[in-house]
């Protein structure tokens, strides 16, 4: 049955430049060109949804916009999504709406934090979700470039998140255009991110991480896996990390993207991902003396300093989350530190039943 | 995202096989897996009488890499199984 669209209809020019100018004037987008959400395009998107057009998936902060499937579909069209990717957008929005993700806090904060989507499962290749070289930008897969963007447009157009207005983000970050990448499961020596959360390998799963940015790590001098992991642990525990600001060290995660070459190397002493996490956690701390006196006092007041003077970045090993992706050039890792008051959320991608 | 065509990869390996055959060696494609971007090639030296006459490992590896790069879209990892290692 074809859906009946209920959203307001707007007449726009068929000329691409005039349409682009109009979209900027009306603040429908992010400044880059959008695809006009014609009825046909929206209906095609809706046909890929497991829920009807009027189904309410939730209320998006910060301005409590009611997210119907129809409105989400319109934004997916605007972003350039293909209909087959729409269920991934829906799963991401479902995950964002989980209370533990703290969507209101993350859409209004002064921090640069934004949903970073990590996709597991067979749909990665079908939808063009990048997980190899340049997966965090530059590879140019349609899924990577449009799914994250669709989520960003939903937060902007339905949730009302606007920089300098409802969002107090001081800098923002490039990922606010949208960020979506996959895990290179076939090159990972460990169970995938989704499998470690209890999902089957045959399922498409979206993990939403409230990431503050991409923090690059590199080494060309040392091939020893323990040395490299030690250096990664020390690097992610940088003194101005958000994760030191909270009184609760069990809040938040750091996703650590590890290239496949390093992953193979790490898997020799650490054949299970949990062993990697344990080792990282053992070394992800700084001595209290590192901070100036005022900060030392803050950390002591918040009970973050152990008797031996160590200030651990996080309270548990599972807050340091390895994900295998990226190219075969080795030499690099990327940390995606979180905002703190937010927990990774996951949702299965659901499609219409046949 | 299938960036590795097994037929094209096999053709590249065959070209280099012709080079090493003159010295009694042979090169065979073991696997070309688009999911892992890994290409495994095995060098057989069992019929070789003069080991020093066969292209050195590093040189052969470079030639294979160059030949494969012309036929594979995107990155790949060459694993050359060479008994001289």
Could you list the spans of chain B in which at least 5 consecutive residues all have pLDDT below 50?
none
CATH fourth-tier homologous superfamily of chain B: Fe-S cluster assembly (FSCA)
Number of distinct beta strands of chain A: 12
Helix and strand content put the structural class of chain A at alpha+beta
Order of helices and strands of chain B: HEEHE
CATH architecture of chain B: 2-Layer Sandwich
Largest sheet entry of chain A: 4 strands, mixed
What percent of the residues of chain B sit in helical stretches (DSSP H or I)? 25-40%
Content of β-strand of chain B: 15-25%
Which secondary-structure class do the elements of chain B indicate? alpha+beta
Radius of gyration of chain A: 21 Å
Per-chain topology:
The complex is a heterodimer of chains A (about 350) and B (about 80).
Chain A: H1 16-26, H2 39-47, E1 56-60, E2 65-68, H3 69-79, H4 86-96, H5 103-108, E3 114-120, H6 123-127, H7 142-157, E4 179-182, H8 193-196, E5 205-211, E6 215-218, H9 225-236, E7 254-258, H10 260-267, H11 273-283, E8 285-287, H12 293-301, E9 310-312, E10 320-324, E11 332-337, E12 345-348
Parallel strand pairs in A: 3-4, 7-10
Antiparallel strand pairs in A: 1-2, 3-5, 5-12, 6-11, 7-11, 8-9
Chain B: H1 6-21, E1 26-33, E2 38-44, H2 57-69, E3 77-81
Parallel strand pairs in B: 2-3
Antiparallel strand pairs in B: 1-2
């Amino acid at each position: 049955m074809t859906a009946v669209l209920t959203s307001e209809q707007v007449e726009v020019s068929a000329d691409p430049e005039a349409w682009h100018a109009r979209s900027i004037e009306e603040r429908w987008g992010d400044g880059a060109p959008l695809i006009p959400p014609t009825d046909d395009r929206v209906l095609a998107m809706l046909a890929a949804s497991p829920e009807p057009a009027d189904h309410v998936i939730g209320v998006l902060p910060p301005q409590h916009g009611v997210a119907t499937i129809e409105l989400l579909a319109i934004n997916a069209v605007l972003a350039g999504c293909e209909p087959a990717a729409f269920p991934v957008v829906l799963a991401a929005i479902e995950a964002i709406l989980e209370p533990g993700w703290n969507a209101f806090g993350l859409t209004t904060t002064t921090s640069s934090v934004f949903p970073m989507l990590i996709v597991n499962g067979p749909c990665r290749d079908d939808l063009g979700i990048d997980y190899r070289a340049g997966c965090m930008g530059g590879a140019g897969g349609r899924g990577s470039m449009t799914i994250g963007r669709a989520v960003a447009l939903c937060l902007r157009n339905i949730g009302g998140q606007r920089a300098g207005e409802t969002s107090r983000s001081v800098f923002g970050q490039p990922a606010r255009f949208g960020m979506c990448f996959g895990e290179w499961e076939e090159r990972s020596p460990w169970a995938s991110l989704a499998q470690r959360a209890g999902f089957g390998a045959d399922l498409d799963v979206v993990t939403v991480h409230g990431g503050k940015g991409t923090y690059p790590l590199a080494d060309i001098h040392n091939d020893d896996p323990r040395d490299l992991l030690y250096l990664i642990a020390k690097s992610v525990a940088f003194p101005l990390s958000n994760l030191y600001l909270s009184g609760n060290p069990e809040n938040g995660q750091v996703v650590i993207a590890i290239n496949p070459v390093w992953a193979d190397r790490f898997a020799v002493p650490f054949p299970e991902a949990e062993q990697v996490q344990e080792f990282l956690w053992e070394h992800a701390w700084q001595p209290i003396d590192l901070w100036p006196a005022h900060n030392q006092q803050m950390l002591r007041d918040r009970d973050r300093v152990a008797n031996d003077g160590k200030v651990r970045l996080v309270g548990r090993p599972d807050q340091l989350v390895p994900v295998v992706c990226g190219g075969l050039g080795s030499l690099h890792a990327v940390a995606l530190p979180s905002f703190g008051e937010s927990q990774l959320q996951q949702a299965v991608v659901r499609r219409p039943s046949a | 995202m299938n960036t590795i065509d097994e037929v094209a990869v096999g053709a590249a390996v065959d070209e280099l096989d012709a080079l090493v055959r003159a010295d009694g060696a042979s090169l065979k494609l073991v696997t070309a897996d688009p999911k892992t971007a890994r290409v495994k090639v095995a060098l057989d030296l069992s019929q070789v009488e003069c080991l020093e006459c066969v292209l050195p490992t590093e040189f052969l590896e470079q030639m294979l890499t160059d030949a494969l790069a012309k036929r594979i879209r995107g990155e790949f990892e060459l694993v050359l199984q060479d008994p001289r290692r």
